Amino acid sequence: MISITEFETVDQAEVTALILQIQREEFHIAITLEDQPDLQEIEAAYFAKGGKFWVAKNEQAEIVGTLAVVPIENQRCVIKKVFVTPTYRGKEKVGQQLLDQAFKFCKTVEINEIYLGTTEKFIAAQKFYQKNGFERIEKNTLPPSFMKMEVDNVFFRKKLER
């Protein structure tokens, strides 16, 4: 059984370890914690800006997934930090539960469009986003305040219906 809860300060070390392990060890992306200031200051980067950061925990209360949302201009938002540990990908629909939580939040704050960036290395993630109604877009069509990471080179948008 997976539970989806909001990030708490006590989750910081485990969240950081999970994300860095996936980025650096599994996918060999040359990125450090210092390259990700939002990951170092989750509350300031997400909650203080009207967003959310969720963690998925298994029965042992271990964090097995993360997803964050931050609103930007014109009733839009950006989804960031979507990570699921390899042993839980496709299992118990952890990624889907996290994304569904984001969709619910977006409806409550009247978001019309969701944007996200990823890397070409995350092929399964790209298929997952497309399965959930995201369309691939060009970098030059991103909103001005889109928070792009250097490793992002594939971008998606989803228009939400009311």
Structure overview:
The protein is an alpha+beta fold. The protein has a single domain (3-159), classed as 3-Layer(aba) Sandwich (Aminopeptidase). It is built from five helices and seven strands; from the N terminus they run βαααβββαβαββ.
Average pLDDT rating? 95
Helicity level:
25-40%
Largest sheet: 7 strands, mixed
The number of helical segments is 5
Oligomer state equals single chain
* Secondary-structure element string: EHHHEEEHEHEE
Instruction: Kindly report how far apart the N and C termini lie.
Output: 31 Å
Rg over alpha carbons: 15 Å
Can you tell me the overall shape?
Answer: globular
Can you give keywords for this protein?
alpha+beta, 7-stranded mixed β-sheet, 5 helices, globular
How would you summarize the topology of this molecule?
Elements: E1 3-6, H1 12-26, H2 37-40, H3 42-45, E2 52-57, E3 63-72, E4 76-84, H4 94-108, E5 113-118, H5 123-131, E6 135-137, E7 154-159
Parallel strand pairs: 4-5
Antiparallel strand pairs: 1-2, 2-3, 3-4, 5-7, 6-7
Give a short overview.
The protein is of the alpha+beta class. It is 29% helix and 27% strand.
